[in-house]
Write a structure and sequence with these properties.
The protein is mainly β. It contains 9 helices and 33 strands. The chain folds into 3 domains: about 120 residues, Cupredoxins -  blue copper proteins (Immunoglobulin-like, Sandwich), CATH 2.60.40; about 200 residues, Sandwich (Immunoglobulin-like), CATH 2.60.40; about 130 residues, Sandwich (Immunoglobulin-like), CATH 2.60.40.420. About 10% of the residues lie in helices and about 40% in strands. α1 packs across α2. The structure holds copper (II) ion.
C-alpha cells in the first residue's frame, strides 16, 4: 500500500485522524507494513515422528510444517529461498494468482534451484484467504517441505479464536517408492461407515495381478498405489502432544484446516459440535454450509466455524480407520477443562452428514448450458491408469509431458470436464486460477464452489470446472495433487497463447 492509498483508507474511518497522530513516521511504517520479507531454508531434517520410526525428511527452517506466513491483503511479499535439501527445489505458492515466473514449477516456470543455490520469490499475494506453500520438485513436499500461508481478508468476520491446523501424514518412503512403481502392498485406509462408490478391484487387476497377489499372499486391499504411513500429524505432532486450543464460552472459533498429506483424503469431525464451512480452498463460498464432519482432499482447505456454548473439552479428530488416525487429533477446551475426558466425535461415518460438493454447492438437475454466457474453450479429460505394476496415471491415455494441453487466449471463458475411469478419487489442482466447480456426477451445482483443487470421484465420476483466463500469461500446470499420481504422469497445463509470451513448451 502506498502513502496515498493509506491516507485514502484512513480518511474513511472515524479513527483516521487519531491514528495518523500516533503512528510512527511513514518510512518506518513502509518497511513494517508494505513488504513482508522471509527466508526459507530447506535442509535435511531427521526425526522420530513416533518412537519406533526414524524419518529422513526435509524441512524449511528446521520445522515441519514450515513457518506459517501471514500477510495483509495488498501487502508485498518477498521470500529468499535457500536450498540445502540435497537436490533441486522450487517453492509453489498454492492457490495464489501471481506472475507465472513466481509460480515455482521446475522446468516450466523456472529452472529448479540447485542444491546450494538460492532464488528470490517476489509478488503480492492474492487473492486473500487461506493458501499454502510447498516444494514442487520431486517428493520434497512429501518429505516435509510445506507450510500454511494466510492472506488476511479485511472483509472477513472477526473470530474470537482462530487456529490453523495442518493435517499431514508422514510416509514410509519405501512404500512411496513401491507406489511410484504401482507395486505397493500398503492397504487402503478409509473411515468406517464411509458412503462411497464401491471399489472395483477387478477393473484394474488383470489375471496376472490376481495371480501375483495370490503368490505374494496379499490382501485384496493392496492396490499397488497406496502409501503406508508412519505417523499422522496435526501441525507436526500426534495427540496428546498436539497443542490444545483454549476457548471461552460464547467464543466464535475459526478453524483453518489444510490437508497436506501426500495421498490421503481426510475426514475430520469435532466432538459435540457441527462445523459451519464458509470458505473452500480459502475462497468465500456463496453460502455457508453446516456439516457434522469435513471431507478434505489432498491440498484442499476449509475454513470451519463453531460456537462454544458451554464449558467442556472436545476432540477434533481424523476418522480414518487405523490406529494412527486416532492420534491425529487436537484438544479444544475451556478454562480448567484440559484434564477432563474430551467428548469425541462418532467413530464411524455411517449416517453422518459430511461435507460433499453436491451438499455445499446445492446440487440439482443438470443445467443446459452448464454456465450462462459464451464458452470459448472446452477441454475434456478422461483420467486413467493405475494398473498393477504399470507406473502410469494418465489424462486421455497420455502421461506428462505428452498430455493434451489447454491453449487459451487471455479473456477466454473455459470449461474443463473430467471423467474418472480409475478406482481412486483424484484431487485435481490448477495453478494460478480460482475456478468454479459447476458440475459433479451429472448434477449442476446451483451455488458453484470457488476452488483451486477438487476431488474427481472414482469409478466413472465426473466433475466440471469453469474459469476465465484472466490470470497473468504463462504456463499454468493442472495436475493431480496425489504425489504418486503426479510423479507418474497425471499432469497437463493451461497455456496462454500470444506473441507476448516468453514461455516455451518442452518435451511435447
Ligand atoms: Cu490422482
Amino acid at each position: 500500500m502506498n502513502r496515498r492509498d493509506l491516507l485514502k483508507l484512513m480518511s474513511g474511518t472515524a479513527l483516521g485522524v487519531m491514528s495518523a497522530a500516533v503512528l510512527p513516521p511513514m518510512s518506518a511504517r513502509a518497511a513494517d507494513r508494505d513488504t513482508l520479507e522471509v527466508t526459507l531454508t530447506a535442509r535435511p531434517h531427521v526425526y522420530r515422528p513416533v518412537p519406533d520410526a526414524l524419518f529422513y525428511g526435509l524441512a524449511y527452517n528446521g520445522q515441519i510444517p514450515g513457518p506459517m506466513i501471514r500477510t495483509r491483503a495488498g501487502q508485498r511479499f518477498r521470500a529468499r529461498f535457500i536450498n540445502h535439501s540435497g537436490g533441486g527445489g522450487t517453492i509453489h505458492w498454492h492457490g495464489m494468482i501471481l506472475p507465472n515466473d513466481m509460480d515455482g514449477v521446475p522446468d516450466i516456470t523456472q529452472m529448479p534451484v540447485p542444491d546450494g543455490g538460492a532464488f528470490t520469490y517476489d509478488f503480492t499475494p492474492n487473492p486473500p484467504g487461506f493458501r499454502w506453500y510447498h516444494d514442487h520438485a520431486g517428493l520434497g513436499a512429501a518429505r516435509g517441505l510445506f507450510g500454511a500461508f494466510i492472506v488476511d481478508d479485511p472483509r472477513d468476520e472477526k473470530a474470537d479464536v482462530e487456529a490453523v491446523l495442518i493435517f499431514h501424514d508422514v510416509p514410509d518412503m519405501e512404500s512411496v517408492a513401491d507406489a511410484l512403481q504401482d507395486v505397493s502392498t500398503a492397504p487402503m485406509v478409509v473411515p468406517p461407515g464411509l458412503r462411497r462408490t464401491m471399489k472395483m478391484p477387478d477393473m484394474k487387476m488383470g489375471p496376472m495381478k490376481t495371480g501375483a497377489m495370490k503368490r505374494m499372499g496379499m490382501k485384496k486391499t493392496g492396490m499397488g498405489d497406496e502409501v503406508a504411513y508412519l505417523a499422522r500429524c496435526v501441525n507436526g505432532a500426534l495427540y496428546p502432544q498436539t497443542k490444545p486450543i483454549k476457548v471461552k464460552v460464547g467464543n466464535r472459533v475459526r478453524l483453518r484446516i489444510l490437508n497436506a498429506s501426500p495421498t490421503m483424503t481426510h475426514y475430520i469431525a469435532l466432538g459435540g459440535h457441527k462445523l459451519t464451512v464458509t470458505h473452500s480452498d480459502g475462497n468465500p463460498m456463496l453460502r455457508p454450509v453446516t456439516v457434522e464432519a469435513l471431507r478434505v482432499g489432498v491440498a484442499e482447505r476449509y475454513d470451519a466455524w463453531f460456537e462454544v456454548t458451554k464449558a467442556g473439552a472436545w476432540l477434533l479428530e481424523d476418522l480414518a480407520g487405523d490406529a494412527l488416525s486416532r492420534r491425529q487429533a487436537v484438544l479444544i477446551h475451556t478454562e480448567g477443562m484440559e484434564k477432563a475426558p474430551p467428548v469425541k466425535p462418532g467413530q464411524s461415518l455411517a449416517g453422518v452428514e459430511y461435507f460433499t460438493y453436491p451438499l455445499a454447492g446445492a446440487a440439482g438437475p443438470l443445467r443446459h448450458p452448464l454456465v450462462p454466457g459464451r464458452i470459448d474453450v472446452t477441454a475434456d479429460y478422461t483420467l486413467g491408469g493405475g494398473k498393477w505394476g504399470v507406473p502410469r496415471w494418465t489424462m486421455n491415455g497420455k502421461i506428462w509431458p505428452h498430455t493434451q494441453k489447454i491453449f487459451v487466449n487471455r479473456g477466454d471463458r473455459v470449461l474443463v470436464r473430467f471423467k474418472n475411469h480409475t478406482d481412486m478419487d483424484h484431487p485435481m489442482h490448477l495453478h494460478g486460477h480460482v475456478f468454479q466447480l459447476v458440475e459433479l456426477n451429472g448434477q449442476s451445482l446451483t451455488q458453484p464452489l470457488p476452488k483451486d483443487t477438487t476431488l474427481i470421484p472414482a469409478n466413472g465420476g465426473t466433475g466440471t470446472w469453469f474459469f476465465e483466463a484472466t490470470s497473468p500469461p504463462g504456463r499454468w500446470v493442472l495436475h493431480c495433487h496425489n504425489d504418486i499420481h503426479m510423479e507418474d504422469g497425471m499432469m497437463t497445463e493451461v497455456y496462454y497463447k500470444g506473441p507476448q509470451s516468453k514461455y516455451y513448451l518442452t518435451g511435447s
